[in-house]
Design a protein that fits this description.
The complex is a heterodimer of chains A (350) and B (789). In chain A, helix 10 packs antiparallel against helix 15 (289-304) and helix 11 packs antiparallel against helix 12 (249-256). Among the domains of chain A are: 90-173; 175-278, no CATH class. By secondary structure, chain A is an all-alpha fold. The two termini of chain A are 35 Å apart. Helices cover 64% and strands 0% of the residues of chain A. The radius of gyration of chain A is 21 Å and the shape is globular. With 789 residues, chain B is of the alpha+beta class. Chain B has helices spanning 2-10, 27-37, 57-79, 100-135, 155-165, 202-214, 226-282, 300-314, 342-351, 362-377, 380-395, 397-402, 408-415, 417-434, 492-525, 529-560, 572-581, 597-632, 636-652, 667-691, 694-719, 722-764, 781-785; strands spanning 15-21, 41-42, 144-151, 171-176, 181-182, 189-190, 192-199, 218-220, 290-296, 321-325. In chain B, the strands form 3 sheets. Chain B has a 4-stranded antiparallel β-sheet with strand order 2-9-1-10, covered by helices on one side. In chain B, strands 4-7-3-8 form a 4-stranded antiparallel β-sheet, sandwiched between helices. The relative contact order of chain B is 0.11. The chains are: A mainly alpha (350), B alpha+beta (789). The A-B interface holds A 34, 37-39, 42-43, 46-47, 50, 58-62, 121, 135-142, 151-153, 155-156 and B 50-53, 57, 60-61, 64-65, 67-68, 71-72, 154, 157, 160-161, 164-165, 207, 210-211, 213-216. Chain A: Keywords: Hydrogen ion transport, Ion transport, Transport.
Chain lengths: 350, 789
């Protein structure tokens, strides 16, 4: 019986899981130390050749720039992800699509914001994440109201179900866009969470933990960012994703908060989040809350690799790779701008 | 020369650590010469320095850049389907200046590429435009329209978005452009649609234009009257023609340059790779270009010659100096191999690289491996097929050497072609002994059994040949191998089993004793008298008294006991049990094998039992004594060795060599180690002998399988008579032959191969082989160019 269940699991993405576990091996702690010692980007390239990244920069002419490295890193991730996506079917395909949706949301918001500021489409497109590209994406610039956006463009896209809550006849403005972004994210996270829960098993165990944290992080950050803006408390409460550990009591308390200390008080009631608020601050040498969140996310994602035969590894793989790319870019930026004081504040992946 | 090589295969080459003092202007040339020679393994003298902080990092980077450019050129050449000339890739010397030329060539090609791209873009635009002009025939003048081209896969989404965004107030027509267009950036073929959208009003116009840009459609202005359109179409036509000529010219030019490149690209690539390797090696040297390398002692002259040549080539007046150094470190293991021995050496190295100057089992494996394989695989027919296959590989080896086979499995077989050749040859030999060819026996010399003497008539189905009856056995055995008459005997398997089983034990004992004698060679060579007398000698006695005596009994019974006595012959197994129960065979009314058996056996048992404490206790005791003696003379020996170390320090200016401290003596560790070894050896004497029985088991399995295949498949075809029988035989033969190849040759062959490997690695090599060395990996251009490093 055990063998047969093993076989079923293998058929259902076991090969891809093995692949992902192989892709995961990127840069070790030792490598990070070496990278931070590089003097120029060429050195960085030389050293990256010795890591799991291999010769991904080999065909780039000198001089290197940070943007080229960024582009190539992203390209590598996208190639790996698309390979997995192309070989996946059934549930795993849906799961991988869910991962892509978050990038789609980011891209749409980026394009709308860009159009509002009278930027050219050709200027905006390279900034879009390639994982979040879909057919109708580039036409979002014609919409002037959210209803327009939905009826003309997004109704055909995979994002349509998430969009239902934010349809209104109001014109698009910056406030509006932020609300759209957060409502979309809220709907997306809730849908993703529910899907994983329904999937059950180890996938639910791992993913619900990660998504719950993601939801709570969004709620906390929305609250902190809303101070001093015209967003009302009622509107703010509507943006909280209702799947995290803070739901329902914590979110109720959060919706009443009107200063940083209040947020901190609420969060400290939860054992997971208390250490994140300890020792944060804006003083030099202190870690920012954001970094702490990133660190916690990394821990969760690394833990997801501890369990087998579940989809969490795919999500974690993407997130960890992204973090790794961010780290490399951070180090590369520090090297390029000769600003070495903060070079060590990347977030290591265990 | 070949004799010398054989000798070197027995033990690895003698190595020495040498220091090279290179002049900075001559270093490059010298290292290049050494790379051509491929006999020196350089040590990293700056292990703490990062890759990018080394001395020649800029040069390495330049080589990387050059490689990138060459790869670009190679890609371009491949794109144009030009044949790359790689017949003459053996470049003798590395001339650095020459590679600068590559840069200019690359720039020209890059330039042409850009020209070409531009040309293509123009042409494509024009082509699509003209195609579209031809399409727009019906025109309603008071309605505004926008026309353009779009990628095929986007058209349905485009249609839906247009419809929704304009709330159905548009009219869209599209049609496919039949000619495949080329994407100017990537050069891929793409399919496109030309479309036209009719609508009213300016507001819709801006909206539609935005959608078009969103879908990356290319829009073309189109005049409203037919005359104007015709004029534009004509203009476009002429433009296309112009561009086509320009394009053709550039393409011609490009082709010319690229065909030049194609001739040389391999040579350039190899050159750059060599130069890069040289700089990587130079990076291993210390700041003053002092290098340290391991090299075979016999080749020191050649290395010195190479250094001198390098110095001359660079025109340096100061010679480069090579100097041998004393060291306590273990040198690398270097076994010189050729194409014949490399396959066998690979089997040994796969288990573990031998310690420095330890006896290398590879030369013996050349014979014992195919032999043991063949014992398990004995069949003339199968052996012949295997032999012919390997012979084909060997005869075609020059061709395959040039064009390396891509297939990994085939490559593995190709590397082991001489091994397979010998395996086939030996299988033919053992097949002769077993008298089996595709499981059939061949009667060449005439059987030694006489059926007529048993009064055989056609009436009786079964007939027992009794050798005791006069005239049934002719008095002399079948001349060579097993008598073919056994083929028809019912008790063939029983008789052969007993025979093969005993053979397996005999061969096993022979190989194990041989292994112990190699251990003796090792002890002699390393002057390790302690282990020789306290470990090896009791081991030898133990094995001989236990298994050797059994083998003696087998041989004795075979040669002395005759058919007439077969009813009273004693069982060897019972005899062995009796021996260790210390019972006299006479007391149980058993016939002794020979007179005085009991006394001999008692003696042997005593020897066996005595060997165990001898193995276990003597060595730790003597070591203990020695350590006590050492302690008794405080500082005597130690200070001596300290002095040595100090001198070495002085000579080498390097702290690395004083590392190996005199070992501290730990009695409990020694005892535990010795106990484990003793127990392991005693048990392994039995278990290894039993393990050799696989020789019998696999040989039985092989002959039974081929028997089954013959009688179940081929026999049915041959047994049918008439025309139908001929046709059936024809088809059955294909079935039979494919099964023979797939099951008997491939599967059985693999399994016999595996068991032969195991017998060598475990049963044979455990007797003498340490296998804890590390392999000599010299800095060699041939290895680098072949991509083996």
């Amino acid at each position: 019986n055990k063998v047969s269940s093993f076989k079923i699991k293998l058929e259902n993405g076991g090969f891809l899981e093995g692949l992902v576990r192989g892709f995961k091996n990127g840069i070790s702690k030792e490598d990070y130390r070496h990278l931070t010692q590089c003097d120029t980007l060429e050195d960085l390239k030389l050293h990256l050749q010795g890591t799991g990244y291999g010769h991904f920069l080999a065909n780039e002419p000198s001089p290197l720039t940070v943007s080229v490295i960024d582009e190539k890193l992203r390209e590598k991730l996208v190639i790996e992800f698309e390979y997995i996506r192309n070989h996946a079917y059934k549930d795993l395909a849906t799961f991988l699509d869910f991962i892509k949706y978050s990038y789609m949301i980011d891209n749409i918001i980026l394009l709308i914001t860009g159009t509002l500021h009278q930027r050219q489409l050709s200027e905006l497109l390279p900034k879009c994440h390639p994982l979040g590209i879909f057919d109708q994406m580039e036409t979002v610039t014609i919409a002037s109201t959210t209803a327009d956006l939905y009826n003309a463009i997004l109704v055909d896209s995979p994002l349509a179900p998430f969009f239902k809550e934010c349809i209104s006849e109001e014109d698009l403005n910056e406030m509006n866009i932020e609300i759209i972004r957060n409502t979309l994210y809220k709907a997306y996270l809730e849908a993703f969470y529910d899907w994983c829960q329904q999937k059950g098993g180890a996938t639910a165990d791992v993913m619900c933990e990660i998504l719950a944290f993601e939801a709570d992080r969004r709620s906390i950050i929305i609250t902190i960012n809303s101070f001093g803006t015209e967003l009302t408390k009622e509107d703010r409460a509507k943006l909280y994703p209702r799947r995290g550990k803070l739901y329902p009591d914590g979110l109720l308390e959060l919706s009443k908060a009107d200063e940083y200390e209040a947020v901190k008080r609420v969060s400290e009631l939860y054992a997971e989040y208390k250490p994140l608020f300890d020792g944060t601050g804006n003083n030099p040498g202190d870690k920012t809350l954001e970094d702490k969140f990133f660190e916690h996310e990394v821990t969760l994602n690394v833990n997801s690799f501890m369990q087998q035969f579940q989809y969490g590894v795919f999500y974690s793989y993407v997130k960890l790779k992204e973090q790794e790319c961010r780290n490399i870019i951070w180090i590369a930026e520090c090297i390029a701008q000769r600003h070495r004081a903060k070079i060590d504040s990347y977030i290591p992946i265990m | 020369q070949s004799l010398f090589k054989m000798g070197s295969l027995f033990r690895s080459e003698e190595m020495c650590l040498a220091q090279l003092y290179l002049q900075s202007e001559a270093a490059f040339a010298c290292v290049s010469e050494l790379g051509e020679l491929g006999l020196a393994q350089f040590r990293d003298l700056n292990p703490d320095v990062n890759a990018f902080q080394r001395k020649f990092v800029n040069e390495v980077r330049r080589c990387d850049d050059m490689e990138r450019k060459l790869r670009f050129l190679e890609k371009e050449v491949k794109k144009d389907n030009l044949a790359i000339d790689d017949t003459d890739i053996i470049t003798s010397k590395t001339d650095y200046r020459e590679s600068f030329r590559v840069r200019t060539t690359e720039e020209t090609v890059g330039l042409y590429n850009i020209y070409r791209e531009r040309g293509k873009t123009h042409i494509q635009e024009s082509l699509t435009a003209s195609a579209q002009y031809n399409l727009v025939v019906y025109n309603i003048s008071f309605i505004i329209f926008v026309a353009g081209v779009l990628m095929r896969d986007k058209i349905s989404a485009f249609e839906r978005v247009i419809w929704r965004a304009c709330r159905g107030n548009v009219f869209l027509r599209y049609t496919e452009i039949e000619a495949e267009l080329e994407d100017p950036h990537t050069g891929d073929k793409v399919n496109k649609y030309v479309f036209i959208v009719f609508f009213q009003g300016d507001q819709l116009k801006s909206r539609i234009k935005k959608i078009c840009t969103g879908f990356r459609a290319t829009l073309y202005p189109c005049p409203e009257t037919p005359q104007e359109r015709r004029e534009i179409a004509l203009g476009v036509m002429t433009r296309i023609e112009d561009l086509q000529t320009v394009l053709n010219q550039t393409a011609d030019h490009r082709r010319m340059v690229l065909s030049q490149v194609a001739l040389n690209i391999r040579v350039w690539l190899i050159k750059v790779r060599k130069i890069k390797a040289i700089y990587h090696t130079l990076n291993l040297f210390n700041k003053c270009l002092i290098a340290e390398c391991w090299c075979p002692v016999v080749d020191i002259d050649r290395i010195q010659l190479a250094l001198r040549r390098g110095t001359e080539l660079s025109g340096s007046s100061v010679p480069s100096i090579m100097q041998q150094m004393q060291t306590k470190e273990n040198p690398p293991t270097y076994n010189q191999t050729d194409k014949f021995t490399s396959g066998f050496q690979a089997i040994i190295d796969a288990f573990g690289v031998s310690n420095y100057r330890e006896v290398n089992p590879a030369p013996f494996t050349i014979i014992t491996f195919p032999f043991l394989f063949a014992v398990m695989f004995g069949d003339m027919g199968h052996g012949l097929l295997m032999f012919l296959f390997a012979l084909y590989l060997v005869l075609k080896e020059n061709r395959y050497m040039k064009h390396k086979p891509e297939d990994e499995i085939f490559k593995m077989m190709f590397d082991g072609r001489y091994l397979i050749l010998l395996m086939g040859l030996f299988s033919i030999y053992t097949g002769f002994l077993y008298n089996e060819c595709f499981s059939r026996s061949i009667n060449i010399f005439g059987t030694s059994w006489n059926v007529r003497a048993m009064n055989f008539t056609l009436k009786n189905q079964h007939l027992t040949l009794d050798p005791n009856k006069p005239g049934v056995f002719r008095g002399y055995p079948y001349f060579y191998g097993i008598d073919p008459i056994w083929q028809s005997a019912e008790n063939k398997i029983t008789v052969q089993n007993s025979y093969k089983m005993k053979n397996a034990v005999l061969m096993g004992f022979a190989q194990m004793i041989f292994g112990l004698s190699l251990a003796f060679c090792n002890r002699r060579h390393f002057k390790d008298k302690l282990t020789l007398y306290c470990e090896l000698l009791p081991q030898l006695l133990f094995l001989c008294a236990l298994i050797g005596y059994l083998c003696m009994c087998i041989l004795y019974k075979w040669s002395v006991w005759t058919v007439a006595q077969s009813n009273t012959a004693p069982s060897l197994l019972i005899g062995l049990i009796d021996m260790y129960m210390l019972t006299d065979p006479k007391s149980n009314n058993r016939v002794p094998l020979y007179t005085g058996q009991y006394q001999v056996q008692i003696f042997l048992v005593i020897v066996t039992v005595l060997c165990v404490p001898w193995m276990f206790l003597s060595k730790p005791y003597i070591l203990y004594k020695r350590s006590k003696q050492k302690k008794g003379v405080p500082g005597g020996l130690d200070s001596q060795s300290d002095d040595d170390v100090a001198i070495l320090h002085h000579e080498n200016n390097d702290a690395n060599y004083g590392k190996q401290e005199p070992e501290s003596f730990d009695m409990s560790e020694v005892i535990i180690y010795q106990a484990i070894h003793t127990i392991e050896f005693c048990l392994s004497c039995i278990s290894h002998t039993a393990s050799y029985l696989r020789l019998w088991a696999l040989s039985l399995a092989h002959s039974e399988l081929s028997e089954v295949l013959w009688s179940m498949v081929m026999h049915t075809g041959l047994a049918t008579s008439g025309t139908s029988g001929a046709i059936l035989s024809f088809f059955v033969f294909w079935f039979f032959s494919s099964l023979t190849v797939s099951i008997l040759l491939v599967m059985e062959g693999l399994s016999a191969f595996l068991h032969a490997i195991r017998l060598h690695w475990v049963e044979f090599q455990s007797k003498f082989y340490k296998g804890e060395g590390y392999i000599f990996s010299p800095f060699s251009f041939t290895l680098i160019v072949e991509g083996k490093v």
